TrEMBL record, chain A:
It comes from Arabidopsis thaliana. InterPro entries: RBP11-like (IPR036603), RBP11-like_dimer (IPR009025). Belongs to the archaeal Rpo11/eukaryotic RPB11/RPC19 RNA polymerase subunit family. This is RNApolymerase 14 kDa subunit. Residues 112-139 are annotated as: Disordered. The keyword Transit peptide does not apply. GO terms for cellular component: RNA polymerase I complex; RNA polymerase III complex.
Automatic annotation (TrEMBL), chain B:
This is DNA-directed RNA polymerase insert domain superfamily. GO terms for molecular function: DNA-directed RNA polymerase activity; protein dimerization activity. It comes from Arabidopsis thaliana x Arabidopsis arenosa. It holds the Pfam family RNA_pol_L. One of its GO terms (cellular component) is RNA polymerase III complex. One of its GO terms (biological process) is DNA-templated transcription. Keywords: DNA-directed RNA polymerase, Transcription. It comes from the Eukaryota.
Amino acid sequence: MLVYIHVMLLEILIVFNECHIILSLRLMELICWCVDNDDYVNNQYCFQFCSPRVTVAAYTIPHPSLEQVNIRVQTTGDPAREVFKDACQELMQMNRHVRSVFDKAVAEYKDEQKRKEEAEEEELKRQRDLFGSMDIENN
Amino acid sequence: MVTKAEKQFAKNFNIDDLPDVPAGLPPHLKAQQTRVVSKNNAPAHTASAIYSGTYVSSTEEDDNVKLGNFYDNFKVDVVSLTKTDMEFDMIGIDAAFANAFRRILIAEVPSMAIEKVLIAYNTSVIIDEVLAHRMGLIPIAADPRLFEYLSEHDQANEKNTIVFKLHVKCPKNRPRLKVLTSDLKWLPNGSELLRESENKTSKPKTYTSFSCSQDSLPEFANNPITPCDLDILIAKLAPGQEIELEAHAVKGIGKTHAKWSPVGTAWYRMHPEVVLRGEVEDELAERLVNVCPQNVFDIEDMGKGKKRATVAQPRKCTLCKECVRDDDLVDHVDLGSVKNHFIFNIESTGSLPPEVLFTEAVKILEAKCEAITDF
């Protein structure tokens, strides 16, 4: 598996200029075996590692019945472990941001609904008063 | 001879300021980056960029992969919100996040469901195991955040178990009787069934060991635990038949069994985009409006007996491609989806409101990222 990945990397890197090929010889690698992780968490690592420090970020699942994920991070020189941790931290921040924006939107929606209901109630009351006065006039 | 003005111009020259240098990506690459194109054979450009250099442009303004842009551009619009259903838009987020939230909502947000059914008496036509299975599928309106998980080594107590009792009998001189979830009674003091013990001199034991009553907790004092709907049919009893049982509900997640899933379903779709190329007029406009089953298009009167088709409700589009099946219309309609605009739907079973369910799902994903960091 690793040799295959290397071959793929070389194929990809050849598309770029010679500088990349020379640079790849000095890259650090991090291969992590993370137990009990599901697909949707790893998909975000690919998304998350779109940063200048990372040249390759990928994952494989050795077998679907094993709860194992093989994550590979290849950096431009920084320690791959630190880059990986930074990505997880950033993911947490993004999730917190999603939560705060969502809570704000729900609160705004509820306030709007309450205001709408109050306006409707006031309108109904006004209609009832008008109707009542008309009845009195008729009588 | 180079003049002073020419030197000043050369010093301040920037190639991006030239009028014919385009800012950002070319339009076709921009569309490729942000849209899924719905072709006749297959959707195209479905993948999102996983490499920071995939779309390199002269200016960095439109780079939506950058984290700063995410914090600025992410937006949530609530479309509708009821006690059980919620629809909202998430704009400026990647599909991986939306799918992660959906999967966590379905499989990893906990809820309470009946796990043990102790049947003392059952003369109805429904056999014991089928009756127990039906009991397990009843949604229970209890906040799972107030309870702990029950492991194999734990004793059932007031912190991890909810006890219900069901005792219904159909008298002999009455017509057929329906057993509904309103007949389930909550037992805040715990189990009332006695265990069989070999030593008859010892104190009789029940199936739970509650140290205090559950209705002494502030959350349940004025709010007894009930099933979410009180008119769910459990069984039907003929005259003379009887059911007497006790049910224990515990906390679980949908990955273990679907009965613990707190959502009826949670699903999302990308916001559809329908663009008319050129003018679609008169008879062609009529055909376009008639061919769409979702009423996406509308007729606009232009005066002098002329008519034109417009896209009135693109949100309703389900990308069924009925409009591009027509050979005359296929050149006039462009179908697509916005890659970072998700219409999210959550249908709660009733244990928690849908907006709380989504917040809990995001918290679970946060906890996963935190757990991975500690290695």
